[in-house]
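Q: How would the structure tokens look for this protein?
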Amino acid sequence: MTYEEIRKHPEVLALLEKGNQNLGVLGFTDHSAAHCALVADRAAYILRRLGYSDHDEELAKIAGFMHDIGNAINRTHHAEIGALLANELLKQTDMPMEDRITVIAAIGNHDESTGGAKDPISAALVLADKTDVRRNRVRTKEKEKFDIHDRVNYAVTGSSLKVELPEHKIALNLQVDESICTMYEYFDIFLGRMMMCRGAAEMLGAKFRLTVNGGKVL
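A: Here is the predicted structure in token form.
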């Protein structure tokens, strides 16, 4: 089972579509297949830059694309639910058991409420997912209807994630329009996620750095 096959898997796509619809009703930002593809590519980029194998990149991409399928069932504990769903799906493929367990462990540990990086694959997934902060994840453009999550994401006018070598730094650089969202609001929503990123970077033998409007924050 390859990443390209997973990206086209009808059940995976149906679960992601339903999960994104559910979160839209609840007022969450975009969690579609587009978000998951970005997470997959970003997770692979992190591991590639740090010298991990092509095989590790492939597992990280599969975990990245499937990580939000649990939202189709329920947002609460969606990581753990997603891991169980992924296990059942991947059992039906030719993926080796060890690889399947690595993928589902990463999915099951990607949420900040109950999870955390346990190995390189889960660490790359955490970093890729939690750093996807951008304006076009906001579903509605009617600003009077924005909640704090909408404002925080909409305020981000520029975002880039870079792995800096030889320093072994994983740097998230944001441009934030503080007329839309104050830094207090940003950290009210994202501090826990950024601390999770710090732990994930350490798992990879790197340091996590957050820069906002040119100034180092973390």
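Residues 15 and 174 are 31 Å apart (CA to CA).

The chain has nine helices and four strands.

Upvote if useful.
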